[in-house]
Design goal:
3 helices, alpha/beta, globular
Length: 175
């Protein structure tokens, strides 16, 4: 969960010099991500970051990294994945560093716009604090893609509210 606001989001821009179908596809992807950010913004304040280094959440126009099971078999292919990293900043005046986290969302550029938007909403839900999945297909955080992607549900919002009612050490001095 976040302790400082607004939460900054970086969206990877399309490669330069795209033309034709590739340029259209890249713009469609970007618009779908922008819409997903806009939908979450009333829930928690989000703002766009100019560079990935300054962002709390980074959205990459890339399929998630391929993973393998411990026995070497390939894991199932996914359209998206959210990963996080914890880090500390330079020590404060009292010598104590602050604990922070950053999320990287890998989002395939090869989905139809409606599913890209739904997938971005889902992954942003993880990055905003809902790390688990819902058993209800009417929730954005449902564990699988559905034919008619739902909007953010009251259950999603209540889950997020409950999460933010819990104490956190993120954004606070480490002791």
């Amino acid at each position: 969960m976040w302790s400082t606001f607004p939460i900054t989001v970086y969206v990877e821009p399309p490669q330069p010099n795209l033309s034709g179908f590739a340029a259209t596809q890249a713009e469609t992807w970007r618009q779908a991500i922008a819409t997903a950010i806009t939908v979450w913004h009333p829930v928690l304040p989000l703002t766009l970051a100019e560079t990935p280094e300054t962002a709390d959440i980074r959205i990459w126009r890339s399929a998630p990294p391929i993973q393998r099971h411990p026995d070497g078999r390939l894991a199932r292919i996914r359209a998206a994945e959210t990963r996080y990293a914890l880090y500390t900043t330079q020590p404060q005046a009292d010598g104590t560093p602050l604990l922070h986290h950053r999320f990287d969302i890998y989002l395939s550029p090869h989905q139809p716009a409606a599913f890209t938007q739904a997938t971005a909403r889902h992954e942003l839900g993880h990055a905003l604090g809902i790390w688990g999945h819902s058993p209800d297909p009417g929730d954005v955080l449902y564990y699988a893609q559905v034919r008619q992607p739902p909007p953010i549900s009251a259950r999603d919002l209540n889950t997020l509210k409950r999460i933010y009612e819990q104490p956190t050490q993120v954004g606070w001095p480490t002791n």
